[in-house]
Amino acid sequence: MASKIKKDDLVHILTGKDKGKEGKVLHVFPAKNKVIVEGINILKKHKKKTDKGEGGIFDVPSPIDLSNVALVCPVKKVPTKVGFTILKDGTKKRVSKVSGETI
Description:
The protein is mainly β. It has a single domain, classed as SH3 type barrels, CATH 2.30.30.30. Helix content is 0%, strand content 45%. The chain is built from no helices and ten strands. The strands form three sheets. A six-stranded antiparallel beta sheet has the order 6-3-2-1-7-8, with no helix packed on it. The mean pLDDT is 93.
């Protein structure tokens, strides 16, 4: 089945500490229904110094649930639901519910 949210999509955060922000999807985990969004849900990771690298406190993006993000419509620049349509050549495409345009 085709995914509603894909890598490099612009998404709007619906809930949580980053509510109202927008960012680009860096990675999608379809089995877990989670996505990693650039600049959203950043956590502090403490890492000990090793022979291979330096230690310190690093900012690491954490996955966010798919139900907490909405795709941004490329035409109207507002959050939208995603639907699917089958074109005349038989391919399945994502469609914005706000504008009706293919994504």
